[in-house]
Amino acid sequence: MRARSLVAVATVALALMGLGGCPPLEQLCPDPNCPEPNCPEPNCPEPNSPDPNTPDPNATDKSLHEKIFTEIITDGFQDTSDCMICHSEIAHDLMATGHWKWEGTSVNIEGAETETHGKMDLLNNFCIAVPSNEGRCSQCHPSFGWKSSTDTETFFAEVNNVDCLVCHDTTGTYRKHPSANGGGGPAAILVDGAPQVAVAADLQEIAYNVGTPSRSNCGLCHYFAGGGDNVKHGDLSTDLNDPDYEADVHMGGLDFSCQVCHTTMDHGIAGMALHSVDEGGESPDCTRCHGATDVHEDNPTLASLLNLHLDTIACQTCHIPTFARVLPTKVEWYWSEAGQDVDPIPTDEYGKPLYDKKKGRFVYAKDVTPSYMWFDGKWSRMIIGQTDFFTAEGTVADPVIIASPTATSETAGAKIYPFKKMIGDQPADADNNILLVPHLFGKVEDDPNLDNPFWGGFEWGPALEDGAAFAGQTYSGNYEFVNTVMYLSINHEIAPAEDALSCNDCHGQTWAWDDLGVEDPLGGL
């Protein structure tokens, strides 16, 4: 990275003031009332400056950043240390958030409300865990170069490690390479639909055209969580880049950006489910716009009846009748079958591959009916080294529950919400009943804890020894595969009102009454 001094800041600002007559002070001065030292009076014109109403024959259509990287910093954009000339304070704001730290005060994890947890130490039944796999997981971290061999605390404190482009690219060509250079998410561009590690010359147009994040920027990570398009969440896919009204009434019908609901403040983003919940502003609840009472007045015939449901049923329950309505989502994942040479790879009716040597066997589904559960915002989560043990049999009939809401019908304030149910199997310590962290990606020759990635030699024993040691887990050396279940909240793909659940979809049906622990109040009618 090139060194930049404070002199460069003044050079950039002063040089821009000479471009096109009176400067756009709102772009250059933090306070439009200015003047700061060396900043011209806001009312202009300066002596000998052209009439601002007279077209400048030398004016161009260049963006502000293109002017900077072509007319001031004449060797162009090199890396995001150049962004820090003007934006280091903003970068430090980002570095204080849950999106950067991947953890925070976990107020919504039951039993750990005052502790610090997050993606860093939570288990799941997709790619299982971050520790020892940072080099691959970091393709969805807004940084460059974070790997398992990196001192994370030091790395996370360095402002020049921030990747501004992944969120602010507006060209649609920027990516983070998933595995090149040993991982760490190096900067890449799309070439013939595939990421190719970028050099500075490849990034010029991207740097010229940075802007406000769009749905596609957020989606680079959130759509592809779990390793593929719509794999993990079920209600977040590339279809939402350009959805129709039926796919989502907010993003398709009203062209909402993510930030309309997930408001931002100091680069914190509202809507974190488990930790960092105070970042970004008010929680993105439906009631923030629609209110909490009398929300069905457009349907006066049924309004009074429908509004009776508001105390016990979440908006999403009726207004997301199914999810993965456009693109299928993964609903089963069996790690126990990974490591085999299967040829040809079977595919399903959606064209999805049902096997991967690195990951095992999968099942996909589309137009999925949610599981319904009581929810008050609190979760039970398995935390590495803390709650990673289990007492369940680990069978299909008695699986290990990795993540689930904690509320019941007796919990004050709880409502019925929709969830995606994810099932599969994964490795566990056969003697200690602990869900294990496997080392999947990234070999570090001089670190005995990172020498045997499963995706290298396809041997579970050494990979589990590596991962458990790196994550600080006790491992007996004997492993087995246990069946697991994980629930994920469903909040997107809001259907048109006419497609919402009707009375007969729930009442007078078996529906989810037994699972919810309540009786259908209209069951006898």
Commentary on this structure:
- Strands 8, 9, 10, 11, 12, 13, 14, 15 and 16 form a nine-stranded mixed sheet that branches. A three-stranded antiparallel sheet has the order 3-4-5, with no helix packed on it. Strands 1-2 form a two-stranded antiparallel sheet.
- By secondary structure, it is of the alpha+beta class.
- It is built from 19 helices and 16 strands.
- The N terminus is likely disordered.
- The radius of gyration is 26 Å and the shape is globular.
- Helix 1 packs across helix 3.
Question: What topology does this entry show?
Answer:
Layout: H1 6-17, H2 25-28, H3 64-72, H4 84-94, H5 98-101, E1 104-105, E2 116-117, H6 134-137, H7 152-156, H8 165-168, E3 174-176, E4 187-191, E5 194-197, H9 204-208, H10 215-222, H11 249-253, H12 258-261, E6 264-265, E7 268-269, H13 287-290, H14 303-307, H15 315-319, E8 329-334, E9 355-356, E10 360-365, E11 371-375, E12 379-381, E13 400-405, E14 415-429, E15 434-435, H16 454-457, H17 460-471, E16 479-489, H18 503-506, H19 513-516
Parallel strand pairs: 8-14, 13-16
Antiparallel strand pairs: 1-2, 3-4, 4-5, 6-7, 8-10, 9-10, 11-14, 12-13, 14-15, 14-16
Task: Give a quick rundown of the structure.
Helix content is 22%, strand content 14%. It is built from 19 helices and 16 strands.
Largest sheet: 9 strands, mixed
How many beta strands in the DSSP annotation? Answer: 16
> Total number of helical segments?
19
Unreliable stretches (pLDDT < 50, length at least 5) are 1-7, 17-49
